[in-house]
Amino acid sequence: MITELKHKMHKILFFTSAMLLLPTFAFAKTDEQKGFDISARSDRSDRGFGDSQVKLKMILRNAAGSESTRTLILKILEIPDESSGDKSIIIFDRPADIRGTALLSHAKILDPDNQWLYLPALKRIKRISSVNKSGPFVGSEFAFEDLTASELNKYTYKYIASEYCGTLKCDVVERYPQYKYSGYKRQLVWIDQNEKQIRKIEYYERRGELLKTLVIDKYKKYQKNTWRAHYFVMDNHQTGKSTELIYSDYKFNTGLKDKDFRKDALRSSR
Amino acid sequence: MMKQLFWTVTLFLIAFPRIALTAGLTVALANETQLSGFVSGEIRGFVSDAQFESQLNGLQSSIIIQPEFLNQPELSTARISLIPFVRLDSRDDRRSHADLREAYWQHIDDQWTVLIGINRVFWGVTESSHLIDIINQTDLVENIDGEEKLGQPMINLATQQDWGNVSLFIMPWFRERTFPSKQGRLRSQPVASQNSLYESTDGQRHLDMALRYSHYIGDWDFGLYYFKGTSREPRFLLNSNGTQLVAQYDLIDQVGIDIQLTNDAWLWKFEGIVRSQNGDRFAAIVSGFEYTLYQVANSATDLGLLMEYSRDGRNKNPSKTPPVVFDDAIFWAARLAVNDTQNSELLAGVVVDRNDGSAILSIEAKRRLDDNWSIGLESRWFLKTKENNSLSPFRKDSFVTFRLARYF
Known about the structure:
The complex is a heterodimer.
Chain A (H helix, E strand, L loop, with lengths): L1 H26 L3 H14 L6 E11 L5 E11 L9 E8 L7 E5 L7 E6 L4 E5 L15 H5 L6 E11 L2 E10 L6 E9 L5 E8 L4 E13 L3 E11 L5 E11 L18
Antiparallel strand pairs in A: 1-2, 1-13, 2-3, 3-4, 4-5, 5-6, 7-8, 8-9, 9-10, 10-11, 11-12, 12-13
Chain B lengths: L1 H14 L1 H8 L8 E14 L12 E13 L6 E12 L7 E12 L3 E8 L32 E10 L2 E8 L20 E7 L9 E10 L2 E11 L4 E4 L6 E5 L1 E13 L2 E12 L2 E14 L8 E11 L15 E10 L7 E9 L5 E10 L4 E11 L15 E9 L1
């Protein structure tokens, strides 16, 4: 009898204390969890697009202000599974000496991607090493990992603060690349609270110094919930060089299939 | 007169390539056709005076024109490619030549790809030689490295499946290798005749066939093929009065394998063939690696280090099999990719025969000047050639080529 009462008492006590504690737990989400949640919301707001094709113009500027331009077409096939990366083909159009050169990537999250390069002059498809994603992409201030690395599980996260970023209110999240060959120690990411889109990224190199700042603008919402930015500018603080990316003619659900992203499809990619 | 015409054409094409080409060719094609390609001028200088009488000395210049027309209407399953090629050489009339690199119609659907016409097909993974590459004939007057190819007429049927790619080639017309004229450098002695001999009574009309399977699994890329038909490599016979070499094209059966393992910054490569020719059967291999050091010394520059070993077990009897320059050799090379806006690149390599020490040293460099112009340099040096019978005709032919190209 007594033991039964004791048992009941325990139960009640446990229940009330649990009731009292629960809200505190809910609010005391760790900064890591909060950082992840903010990033996940942002990442997922551009998922579900199926496949896309877009034209990209890159304008490269050196410290003296002289310019050179690259144009290319980017085709992406979305792989819905977040533990696997998307498939993409980049087809170069200008400068004219690399026209028709194409790069096929089957992205992985933490392992090196599978990548093949198609060289039209020799009609050669070459499997290339993809461990290094931190080198300059076609001489620009973008590394390959800057162009492709928005996949959620490529980083761990930590919430830092909330502050104004221009007229919008942003959450500032620090993220740490999990890919062992990444060129960065950490990145600071500004994600606006309205549309949940990335507005700015600061890249800190392995030694910890600020290397580059990326500003992202001209967001537009396509189909159900697919957000795409159309203007990126990356400033390299150490060299004074910068690169602008201008995206145009976005097309979604264009009927691209898995077979269009196989190695042998590179020969007729252009 | 020839010289004057050569330079007038050269200057006109370099100055107005688009006008010249559009006027000449695009008119006939639909407006969905994309035009690209290049015009380039080359000057090749030989370090020494020629070994054989009547060969040119000093400088040799060329103009090369290669427009590329691609017709691929959006949402269409068909595409048409047309790539004519012309080289006009100032001093070697056989090096002045024209070819159709591509002229095909292709149909692509979910399961099958059909291609009818002239095309180029490259197979292989190694850099020092292209052992297994067999579909196209080498355009030898273009470059002795075997990377320039003549267009091959074919019917190609291919299917892509989850388990790999299978491709069947039926080739109804054989292309003969190009050789320099009597005035030309980098040739055999005596000069190769323009008439050839064939083992098949069908001659150039012999139906050649190839079937290839290729796929990749994880880090492994591999291919396997069987070729039955006319050998792209000729043997050489002396004509009756001993003044010319005559190319003899035998019928062969060949199996080829290529494998590449891509592991971190390492590419491990293997190519191998087994060939039956004139009742003889032999094997040959090329195998090695390419290792890349990324962003060396905190710069954007990547440095690639390459090493390959090649071994060729063919019969040394010239009445049985074609000659081979290196049958037991090691290739060392370094590739520098600066990763700058100009896409500057340098490749320096040497192939050394393990037995007699004869070697070919090559240096290739290129750099983009702006959106349309680029420059290139290519140099080859023939070393310790006396000891190597196949290389000794090139003994005095070490050269440097400078190239200026305008892409459009």
